[in-house]
Amino acid sequence: MDKLALPGVSDDDTLTLNLLLARLEAKAERNKLRSAYYDMKHATRLVGSVIPPQYWRLGIVLGWSGKAVDILARRCNLDGFVWPDGDLDDLGFRTVWEDNHLASEVSQAVISSLIHSTAFVVNTRGGAGEPDALIHFRDAMNATGEWSPRTRRLANLLSVTARNEDDQVTALALYLDGRTIVAERDSSGWSVDVQEHPWGVPVEPLPYKPRLGRPFGSSRISREVMNLQDQATRALIRLEAHSDIYAIPDLWMLGADEAIFKNADGSMKASWQIVMGRLKGIPDDEGAANPRADVKQFPASSPEPHLAALNAFAKMFARSTSLPDTAVAITDMSNPTSAEAYDASQHELIAEAEGATDDWSPYLRRATIRALAMANGIAAADVPPEWLTISTKWRDPRYLSRAAQADAGTKQLQAVPWLAETEVGLELLGLDRQQIDRARADRRRAQAQQRTTLLASAAQAARQNPEVAALEALDGDAS
Question: Is the CB of residue 236 less than 8 Å from the CB of residue 60?
């Protein structure tokens, strides 16, 4: 790949830019491969020559890799943010949440993180006609950066925002400490805009399973997952070929003339006509050594070996991805018969979801706090310390029935009655955010109506008994 030299950009920034472009190019092949597995666009490699090639050209695929990603992603749902030390709405959080469609955008970023091992969160100030604070998410196909182990933050980030038909970069943004370089290329060359800001490097990673020495984590579509899916796909292709070739009994005709396989014009009958014909007549030939043809039949072979192999691969795939066997296996599986059995069958997947959300939470918190700072015109160095208690609120990865959740919440409220007057108490009863907001609004309206009714009653009483009302007024002034 040719190196870029942007006009007006320093040598150090140019070096950083080309280093990140080279890293993006080096990872592109593996990232595209994992995307192909997720999108079911990967063709399994032909191994051996036993199965006729036409069966490989059928394009048979399995969606196990996508299932491994989606099942985990569906258990990682961001319900919002909470702030024990204040009211988020006073900071404009509701506007930031709605303007950036964070509920949907975070879900998309979670899927990209699971596929490519990481995704990235980018904070920017809005332009004319845009929200004050923008939060964008970028996948590892189009963004990469350098990790600083000392500060535990990204030192920079390159985001490629456009490519031409030859896959050449035509627009990019380079995020540096206090500066953002935005560049676009057209027929006249590159145009560059350098924007300064007080929010450091306004980007965060969203790694899946990060570890020491690998801060950007690992893909859920691992080499083992890809290999098992390929093996299972080959077993499925063999099963398809078996259905056509080996599922029909094998017949051997001894002493028969091939004329019985020909049409009236002397041409050979089609293979399917020979195989599917149920009533055949073979004339005797008195001049032959064996006047009457002898037919030998061999029974059709069972597809069970292929099904057994496919099921074995399915179980190995389930073990590799912490899925219950019922998610991918095709036989020998039964549904759980109780809530406890269901939890036991899902405990590894639930642990995966909890671990993943724990890893994503610090970076989503920092990105959200930065967005609120941008919306309120506060520099990074001036963010109030109490904002650090803003935290993510993820939905419980366990699937609980409403009855079970309400029963558990009722028992907790009986132990701590004053919780019933708080939002936490309503959450324990299983109410979602929309229901809580509606319940509180209805309660405020009911209280306002009650106060209005009391005031009206008091006014009516005053008109009917002015002397009593005057005495009550004097008592009120004295007190």
Answer: yes
